[in-house]
Amino acid sequence: MKNIWFVRAAIAAALVVVSAVRAPAQISEAVGIRAQGMGGAFTAVADDATAAWWNPGGLAAGAYFNTIIETSSQRQPASKSAVPAWQSGARGFSIAYPALALSYYRLRVSEIQPLASTAGASAGRQDQGSADIRLRSLVLSQFGATVGQSLGNHLVVASTLKLVRGSVATDVRPASAASLDAAADLDGRTEMHAGLDFGAMAKFGPARVGLMVRNARETTFGDGEQAITLDRHVRAGVAVSSRSNLATAAADVDLTTTMLPTGEERRVAACVEGWGPTRRIGVRAGMSLNTIGDARVSVSGGVSAAVRTGTFVDVAAAVGSDESRRGWGFALRVTF
Hints:
336 residues, mainly beta, Porin, 14-stranded antiparallel beta barrel, two-stranded antiparallel ribbon, 18 strands, 54% strand
């Protein structure tokens, strides 16, 4: 019996080595609680400290001082027995002035997949019984410094120079011992790489147009077929605000494709955000759609409440038929 188990494990390990697996990139909506509540339509809004992540070009439109502490979680699907599945968790801190921002984000992406599958359609997701399951975990700690420059009266360009410390770990286990929590517990060899993001924001009266290039310098963690590359991701957005800036409508569109463990996606998103006359309460709602494959919609919402002058609690949640965006987020934001 021991020999049979050894042969089975050896075959499974060999399959992992020879089968190329496309890795998930960083998900834009992993960071930014306001952005999550707006369905990800934030590229042309990006007026708080999370602009360092969403669009560095938006820093110039923000408050004189802004700092945010946040945490969030996403999971697909909600069922603990379904395969393939993935989950991500993020927490971070950012501080920003109009021309400078410093940020730190820690992200963990865990996934489980049957050995014989590719990162394909979720239609085949099911309880895999006694099948062998591949577990994988990616942990990233990102330190960023953002600076910007105005070009004339209407355009700001900026960049975030990143130092990314990351590790990739993989394992193969029988279904009875495989779970997203088990994948999250894996430890891998740590590497350090430099990265670069670019952003631009153009403003014409009440209208803004934003462009974000994340991972302009692509970086790879791990070795061989199991290496994970943070692919270049390009997103554009437009936003229109009222004269008093108490109401905003925005829309985003992905210009590149992102690979998740459960398949490819290219998203479009739209949102509205409104504030009361005293700006002590803000509400927002958004919707996003994956344009690749079957239409799956995510609906999100969020609230900001001032606990004292200039100090806000931000919360967000997302639901809908698109399980890849189901999750929640919480942040404490100080601005003046």
